[in-house]
Amino acid sequence: MRWLLVPLFVILVAASCRCDATRSRSELIDGYVTTALLPQGPGVAVAVIRSGEVVHRSGYGFADVEAKQPVTPETVFDLASIAKQMTGMSVLVLRERGQLRLEDELRTHLPELPEYESERQPRIDDLSRMSSGLPTFIAADDAPVPTEASMLEWFAKQGELDFEPGETFSYNNGNYFLLARVVERVAKKPFAAFLTEEVLRPAGMNTAVVLDSKDTVVPNRAQGYARGKPARWDDGITGPANVFASLDDMIAWDRALWSGKLVPVETLARALEPARLSDGRPLGYALGWGLTEHLGRRMAWQDGDWIGASTYIARYLDDALTVILLSNGTRVPLEEASRTIAAMYLEPGR
Q1: Bridge partner list, 61
Q2: Residues 6 or more apart in contact with residue 22 via CB below 8 angstroms
């Protein structure tokens, strides 16, 4: 039923827009989020940024249901896979400094990995675009909770690729786990320290935390929920996940990207240009961003789906519009929500 609720509300929102032009978009967002999203999880935070101006910024529901603690723009959420964007930016920062190249073979920086029997070895750019062919990490049934050290050891023992680099797209968290290990080898400091000092704080993400240990304290953290019950999983594996940030942190992130605070805007734009697979098909993923179109407009996006966390960010590249949604519920349909909210600003007559 939850998947049917969103399209129905889209129709209601469209009708409301036509019949009551005096209602503000923020009022429409309030009504939509309350009706379509809160039944799916305990809370959600929503921001809309247009041409550098925050035109909507609000929290809904509870960060802690038992304590009746409301979600606010300062509530800190598990970003889940949106953390890949920060990992990708770390790579790009080092590239701008001349410390690595996207064309570098992975083994240039992680020589303990095997030399694969393939036409060419996986490159940094292949990992960034999820086209490396690296196998998906699988922990043994009787193994303890994986650590970064044990995962790297596992990859060092895998002698075969699943496919030739650049042959196809395969979403694989291991790519961004290994990119984080490349960053710390090149930067000569722990990845969490580099990410915090060279990306998050310079971007203005002042309350963001990298959880590199299950014991890391995350101030003002939202309690995660799955099926209505408290749930979360802190493994301390950095690279593909484990960045925690507030809505205000994410607004700062978006501004840093548009303004070129971390790398020049042109550099990021070139890095996000779609590539081609070996058979000529377009490859619409790079540096933690999916690349597609919505309403006939170019869009860069990433979602996050984890135990006690659902997240989504969409940047409409030619419209200077960004929609950000963060939730402490599991499998909340934020993609549909993002597209509905974006349509309030992008469709003709809005």
Answers
A1: 43
A2: none
Burial class (CB in 10 A: 0-12, 13-18, 19+), 40: buried
Residues 6+ apart with CB under 8 A from 190: 184, 212
From first to last of its 350 residues, the chain has per-residue pLDDT tens of 333 344 444 444 444 444 443 359 999 999 999 999 998 779 999 999 999 999 999 999 999 999 999 999 999 999 999 999 999 999 999 999 999 999 999 999 999 999 999 999 999 999 999 999 999 998 776 677 899 999 999 999 999 999 999 999 999 999 999 999 999 999 999 999 999 999 999 999 999 999 999 899 999 999 999 999 999 999 999 999 999 999 999 999 999 999 999 999 999 999 999 999 988 999 999 999 999 999 999 999 999 999 999 999 999 999 999 999 999 999 999 999 999 999 999 976 55
- How far apart, in whole angstroms, are the C-alpha atoms of residue 345 and residue 329? 26
* Element (DSSP H or E) covering residue 335: helix 334-346
Instruction: Please identify which residue in the block is written with the tokens 């990119």.
Output: 179
Q: Which amino acid is at 18?
A: R
Q: Taking the CA of residue 205 as centre, how many other CA atoms within 13 Å lie in the half-sphere pointing to its CB?
A: 30
> 87, 175 in Cβ contact below 8 A?
no
Element of type H or E holding 58: strand 53-64
Longest dimension (CA), the chain: 64
Distances (CA, A) of 208 to 41, 134, 135, 195, 245: 22, 30, 31, 10, 4
Helix (H, G, I), strand (E, B) or coil at 117: coil
pTM attached to this predicted model: 0.91
Of the candidates 176, 170, 129, 171, which has an alpha carbon nearest to the alpha carbon of residue 272? 129
Which residue ranges form the domains of the chain, and what is each CATH number? 41-57+67-328+342-346 (3.40.710.10)
Check: CB of residue 350 under 8 Å from CB of residue 23: no
- The token duo for 1 is 């039923």
Here the tokens at position 21 are 């032009």
DSSP reduced 3-state for 19: helix
